[in-house]
Every structure is written in structure tokens, then in C-alpha cells.
């Protein structure tokens, strides 16, 4: 059981790393959006620059939300929050398409969280009640 707890802790840390990488990508997309927006005011292809800026800002917002969710789940996994296990498994479905780090993270998350020890680590234990 202790090896499973080590794997859950590592999985949480990997989710936090993936979240920070997603936030870093979101920041760089926001800077690209600022650059495209600055081109929109000049004479020339204003519509294309405005559209590119909107797409960059939209992708930056989506990446920031994705990074925040990954970090939140990464912090909750080592604390064995009951909602963290299903959330990590849902994130694993989407992470399969984030090649190569997300795919490896998704495979590792499924391997750790779908084992019997991984399931038991997140079960809520009922407090012992005295017999009636």
C-alpha cells in the first residue's frame, strides 16, 4: 500500500508540472495575441490580424484554465481528496491527445488510479460508531 501512496504523490507532482507547463504555454500565446493585436491597428491586413489576436487570446484563456485545473487536481491527489481520483481520470482522457508528456501522464494516471490499491486510497472511511 505504501508504494501506491508514493505513486499517487508522484502522480500529483506530475500533474502540477503539467499544469505549470500549460500556464507557460498560455502566457506565450497571450504574448502572441498582444503582438497580433498591435498589428491590427496598422494599415494592411487588419481583419486577419484581429482574427489571429482573438484566436491567440482564446487559446491562451483555454490553456490557463487547463493549467489551473491540472494544478488543482495535482494538489488534491496527494491529500486523497475523494473528487481528485475521478477528476484525474477525466483529465487523463484529454491528456492522451497531448503528445508526448500528456500521453505518458494519462497512461501513468490510469495505471495508478485504476488498481485496487489506488481505488482504496481514495475511499472515504466512515468513523467508527459505538454499537447501539
Summarize this, please?
This protein has 132 residues and is mainly alpha-helical. It has 5 helices and no strands.
**SSE succession:** HHHHH
- How many domains make up the coordinates? 1
Quaternary status = single chain
- Distance, first to last CA: 33 Å
Global Rg: 20 Å
How big a fraction of the residues is strand? Answer: under 5%
Give the total of beta strands.
Answer: 0
Properties at a glance:
single chain, 132 residues, mainly alpha, 77% helix
Explain this structure to me?
This protein is mostly helical. It is built from 5 helices and no strands. The chain has helices at 2-40, 46-76, 84-95, 101-113, 116-121.
Topology:
Layout: H1 2-40, H2 46-76, H3 84-95, H4 101-113, H5 116-121
